Amino acid sequence: MRLGVLGPLAVWDDEGQPVRVAETKVRALLADLLAHEGRPVSADRLIHDLWGDRLPGNPAGALQAKVSQLRRVLGRERLVRQPPGYRLRLDPADDVDAARFGRLVAQARSVTDPRARAALLGEALGLWRGPAYADFADAEFARAARECLAEQRLAVLEERAEARLAAGDHLLLAGELAALVAEHPLRERLRAVQMRALYRAGHQGEALASYEDLRIRLADELGACPGPAVSALHRAMLRQDPALDPAAPVRPDHTTAPSAPATTPPAPGSGTVPAGSAGAGAPAGPGAAPASAGSADVGVRAGAADLGAPTGSADVGAPAGAADAEVPVGAADAEVPVGAAGTGVPAGDAGVRVPTGPAGVPAPAGSAGVPARVGPAAVQAEAGRDGTAAPAGRAGLPGPAGRAVPPPAGPAHREPPHGGAPQAGSPHAAPPPAGPPGAGAPYSGSPHPGVPYPASPRPEASHPATSDPEDSHPAPLPPRTAPVPTASASAPASASAPASASAPASAGPVSGPGNLPVPLTALIGREEVLARLSRLLGTQRLVTLTGPGGVGKTRLAVAAAQEVAGDGAWFVEFAGVRDATADDLADLVAATLGIRDDTPSVPPATGTGATSPVRRLTAALRDRRTLLVLDNCEHVVAAAAELVALLLRGAPHLRVLTTTQEPLALAGETVFLVEPLPTPDAVRLFTERAAARAPGFRPDPGEPGGTGAGAAADHAAVAEICRRLDGIPLALELAATRVRALGVRELAARLGDRFRVLTSGQRGAPARQQTLRAVIDWSWELLSAPERLVLSRLAAHRDGCGLDAAEAVCAGPGVARGAVLDLVTRLVEKSLVVVADGPAGPRYRLLESVAAYAAERLRETADEAATRERHLRHYLALAEHAERRLRGPRQRDWLTRLDTEACNLRAALDEAVRRAAEGHSEEAVRLATALSWWWLLRGRLTEARRALAAVLTATAGRCDPELALLHSGFVLLTGERTVTCHADAVPDPVRRARALWLNAYGRFSVGDLDGSRALNTRALIHFEAADEQWGIAAALGLRAALALVRGDLDGLARDGQRSRALFRGLGDRWGELQTVSPLAALAEIRGEYEQAAHRQHEGLQIARELSLEAEVSARLSGLGRLALLARDFDRARDLHEQARRIAVDQGYKYGEIHADMGLALGARRSGDIDAAEAHLLRIRDAHADVSSPAGYHLLHAELGFLAELRGDAARSAAHHLRSLRIAHALGEPRALALSLEGLAGTAALGGDRSGAACAALLLGAAHAARRSVGAPLPAAERGDVDRVTAAARAVLGRRGFTEAFERGTRLGPAEAERHARTTLAALADQAA
Known about the structure:
GO molecular function, one term: DNA binding
Mean pLDDT: 76
Family: Belongs to the AfsR/DnrI/RedD regulatory family.
GO biological process, one term: regulation of DNA-templated transcription
Keywords: DNA-binding, Two-component regulatory system
Protein name: OmpR/PhoB-type domain-containing protein
């Protein structure tokens, strides 16, 4: 089990399914225990936290009730009693999201790689679904835990930002931190990360403005100044300290072994340094000191490149302080000394000064203070053709102010986030104009490796004032077969320079930035999905997002790519191309990545012929760690699949994320279904978008201005809109634009014409997303003619269909029956048909908007009438086939099958009624007759009555007698008395008997016992004549129920047991369930409580098997009554509360009455008289329209006992005398006995001798009435009788009481009633 407090309180089972914790106080109890993290919480504390100063009448009992409810959710073993109260005891397999959050954060802090650390911290943050303990924001018991978790979350957000910054993700980070800083403007650590991100992204002014805002806020609000760390960072930015730039990785100098490396060194040639190793965040030269913890914010170049000397071959350049000088990396706020002309030196190495030449150019290796390490093949680094020093300010060399001059702007000159050298053809490489081989080789020590350093044809071009990168003409890189330049070459033989356009010398893969679009709105409701997709992208090379149009595939893909985009992610839109080949798509991808057609790729095999775009793109991507996001592939799916297959084979470090309505069907492809939003998330999305477009919109009753009935109606309308639009985000956003003009209630009412209503999209959206119709038009146009036929014919179904129905209805002109499965499968793959598991195999369903569109298309053709006729015939055959099997061993399977097809059966009946009105009535009569028994077994009584009435109306003048008889039965079952139709006109005797039995069953339900008995007897005669076993069992079961009402316990036992045996032999579980209530009552009357409980448990099992929730409620009430008799009041209350909740959910009013009565009986017997009265008055006031005479009898009897316990003799007499009149009408001896026992208690209240004698007399009469039907009062139910007996005996003495009691036993029922009225009438008149 999983429990969640990082957001609204949530519970999930072992399968990940939500577990409902319904009642507010029970949720509060769980939250309170979770906030104490497994420590015991005293009962007094819990009572105060749950009720405050408004305590219930019995606080300890009330708490115990909530504990019991919570145990039913969590399991008794998880909520244990431990003095002085309770505590949660979770199993090792259980998980609380707050604890998981802490574990992930601890794991992240042990990881040295910043990218991996950021990913783990992101996973931890992904557990948050809102503020901690969100639904208990005002609860004092959760305040400490809530504030602690909020602070932890904010700290982790800061840590994650620092990790992403260390990983080079400053471009996206700069924008993302704005909202967080605005929310927490005084957090200096957060400000520092934002300032660094802005600075590295080229927004120095914004970084300085952020510091100024912090300084002013601190001064105004706290009278304080920024701390030393952020102040030092501010000063470093003012002087444009090079140490603040993103560090450029360089190849380690292998000529000198590093001393005591801090961690495992990088792979040779990788050009990167692991986070946390020596010089993490900076190139590691020989002798570089290990980086101190927390230094990732300041990049320090400790090596040859730091002093301005390029690292060419292993023999070129001397590291600063190599072998004999450690260069420590200081903390984030360490000031970096400035050398001559602003040249930076390593942080913390204040004693080292680097000699420089003119304009701040560092002196060559070997100058004073810089030991030279020159080998035999030494070259003069960055020398021009004439051997002069390279110009300052070019290709990343320090310029006059010590700042590196950036390369030319544009997509072809973007800086890789980790300093990796782009290979030729990448978007980071400049276009290669013609020139001598070797000119313009990339300068490896530059902060922008891979950007060509232009060769200067004129000496004066060396001056920074006249040198313009746009005017230079670097030569193309040499081919694979070209010789490596020697020391006399005009460009250095850089370790980072690729030997050819397609085979870089660097062994490690190269990364790039990207062009991911920046969303303008928040991604809502996809937090968990995004986390799963991000994890999937970390392990799979090809992931395909599928789903219907408008479900948000593109938006989710971009968000996921942003999560993993540290190595570069590129977004390529395919929607604008048509009839494309793989080469066409490759050209589009190459253009997006800035790869030019004239960039050399691989040498032609024969020296002649052009290279295909796919091969050229594959070569360019071969060594790059890149994520390609290919959007909208469904209309070019074959070409996209071919391109992706070739790219993945040729580029081992490439990952591809595609969005499409149809998978690519490639080996290794992982298909990720993007489903519509669940209703709560859909409501949140719609509400936020509507509020943005309609100021003042407040649909939530919990918000200011959102109270009252109007807000509740708005909230219901919003839920309806989200349901009708299937949770499709695009449809919801389109609908939100209409709220300002229509309001949500009118909008919901107009969704029947959704394509006319949802016609106004966002101006920036593609044309295919401007309207709801355009979204589906786009998908429709991609279908073949047979696919369109099948999709439109599927719209004849409601709520999906099985394969057999699809084949029966969709096969027709243009589509062979054998082709339907393949066509439906293709529509599933194109995300136009949703497939789900059904009881008889897979079911195929259209989303509501797709179904509406397909239905329009169906109406446009001449095919509609034939399609709907095929639909009617299929479901008529299904109903008739099922009807015969609803009374046998496969009853449950066929009930489930018909339940699943309920919407289709209604649609078929609607079509049949329409045809009946045109004179074709046979199908309507047959279908309604076949469905009648399903309606009965499922309790769909009102639906049956309306449907049968519609068929009778449509067939007026041609009325079918069986149909009319069935209709009268359902009229009775829905509570209305009616005249039963003449049954003899039904020709088949068995069908006639079934219809008669149904009417007898209906008359029993409305209290017409004599009419029920007469019709049931006629039905039983027909059944026995035909030896119809099911009918005999049904008639005997009803006769047993009638015997129970009359008090004929022998008849009840005989007929009930025989009926049960027959039903069990037939395998009819519903029929067997009908015998449970009378047989359980019989056992209870006889005091056989174990037998009664056994019967009730059997009934409960059957009811749950058949999903008969109303019967579940009835059986729980029965078990609750047995718990009362055992004086287990807590269990009785729990069972009755369960029964009442189910009855309310099902609209089962009789179940509510039974449960409330059980709660009232339990409250009175446990001493809570006020609660008992509240339950009884609720029955009287809320259910007067449906209460039966037997129910009214018990109600007044209980109200009389309550009045007696309060000493109110007059009111007690009035209630008991009323119950006595009802008992007389019922003619049931046990009911008469209960009224007499109540009146005895009233008579004994006075304490006088005459009253006590009357009480003893009435008790004797009650005893005789019970004995007359063989149902003496069991010991467990003698509480009231024993209390009255003790009171009367105390006045009369033992002998006097016995004499009066014996006289009472000799009174007949009428005489006992007369005596009671004569004695107590005066009291009743007083109450009136």
